[in-house]
Amino acid sequence: MAVRVQREDFDPGNELERLSAGNHDIGGVASFVGLVRDVAGGEEVSAMTLEHYPGMTEKLLAEIEAEANERWPLEASLIVHRYGRLAPGDRIVLVATASAHRHAALESCQFLIDWLKTKAPFWKLEESGSSGEKWVAARATDDRAAARWKQSSDKDEAAE
Amino acid sequence: MAVRVQREDFDPGNELERLSAGNHDIGGVASFVGLVRDVAGGEEVSAMTLEHYPGMTEKLLAEIEAEANERWPLEASLIVHRYGRLAPGDRIVLVATASAHRHAALESCQFLIDWLKTKAPFWKLEESGSSGEKWVAARATDDRAAARWKQSSDKDEAAE
Amino acid sequence: MKILYFAWLRQQTGIDTEEVEAPGEVTDVAGLLDWLKTRGPGHAAALADLSAVRVAVNQEFAELDAEVAPGDEVAIFPPMTGG
Amino acid sequence: MKILYFAWLRQQTGIDTEEVEAPGEVTDVAGLLDWLKTRGPGHAAALADLSAVRVAVNQEFAELDAEVAPGDEVAIFPPMTGG
Lengths: 160, 160, 83, 83
What we know:
Largest sheet of chain A: 4 strands, mixed
Shape of chain C: globular
Number of strands of chain C: 5
Strand order of the largest sheet of chain A: 1-6-8-2
Oligomer: heterotetramer
Largest sheet of chain C: 5 strands, mixed
Structural class of chain A: alpha+beta
Number of helices of chain C: 3
Number of helices of chain A: 5
Number of domains of chain C: 1
Strand content of chain A: 25-35%
CATH topology of chain A: Aldehyde Oxidoreductase, domain 3
Radius of gyration of chain A: 17 Å
Distance between the termini of chain C: 30 Å
Helix content of chain A: 25-40%
CATH architecture of chain C: Roll
Strand content of chain C: 15-25%
Order of helices and strands of chain C: EHEHHEEE
Order of helices and strands of chain A: EHEEEEHEEEHEEHH
Helix content of chain C: 25-40%
Structural class of chain C: alpha+beta
Strand order of the largest sheet of chain C: 2-1-5-3-4
CATH topology of chain C: Ubiquitin-like (UB roll)
CATH architecture of chain A: Alpha-Beta Complex
CATH superfamily of chain C: Beta-grasp domain
CATH class of chain C: Alpha Beta
CATH class of chain A: Alpha Beta
CATH superfamily of chain A: Molybdopterin biosynthesis MoaE subunit
Shape of chain A: globular
């Protein structure tokens, strides 16, 4: 289990290699890399700045990673999230999970990225050549994506 | 879109880098790497040999990759599957998908690996120090995982 | 009490961190936000629509009725847009 | 007709590929498998339980009632275990 919040870029190949190195109980490694797009909501994006809440970010990422490790039988997990000014094509975030079985790896990876989108204290400021700077608004689809990971006990109550 | 069936190892970092290079419409890259475990069904595994059906394998992988590209708005996709004799910790398969949006990437990646487990003409022979060679049996859980990706029109019919 | 502002709340208030001494009748998040509005036009504008604002007290997400006390770290920010 | 065997079917028959001329009454996969059983004890053992066997005709998965004809490539193998 590891969490890093950093300004510097990361190397997904190295990170994945280190995640599973020497652990022959691992049958699958799932990962997701988020990249800066050059368009958002139909508008060209020339750069993006990610602001975060130092201290709380690391604390929350460690908590959600611990929750993923409770809910799925993971052999290893990693979250790396960058902050600062990024250009289109730059890496923003890496989530990687390793497990004996592929579904635990794939599901926990999706759980972590859905969670990051709505609950991690990051804010995106987009720069556009035509319309200047704009804070990205939260999206309802991201809230719905995060909501479907509510524990099944919650879901059972909602269904009753 | 690309499919490779090869004896040689592959470098996940390089593959992911090439998949998204220069395409700033990509917002997320999902990937899964399958590894040889040193234990299966409670028994120690010292090595594994993957046999496949040359010609049919490549054809089917290309077909399923095309289907993923029809079902999800993908910017890029890649399947690399190895054959031959592998040791615990060795990489077996890489599936990677890239899209503007993370759910398309994550779901299509899971679709492809579920499909590979049951429909790609590969067969695993496990070697164990204690009990010799054994062909791996197909698993019902893998069939169920593949079945849930049936097109929604099929599902609608089943629900009626 | 230490108040932190992020994203457009930081820009509108013109402040990233401020040390404040709230009056004794401020005991919860709602009361604190109401009092912060009085600190200037930037604060008033930033906190005009509380539905657009999220709060954390001592680095835990908090609702409007959560308690606050001297010494707390209170962060005010818009809904998160990470990942 | 070209017959390919994979995995334990290859081991039990002792053959990976064989060229065969099936009699005229063999027109579908079921008939072909029945006839292949008569080619020797290895074939008979390998094809004893058809529920454990999958077939592809010209590299397309095929059911027992699928047609086969001279010139076809017919592959016989257990359920797949890739990934």
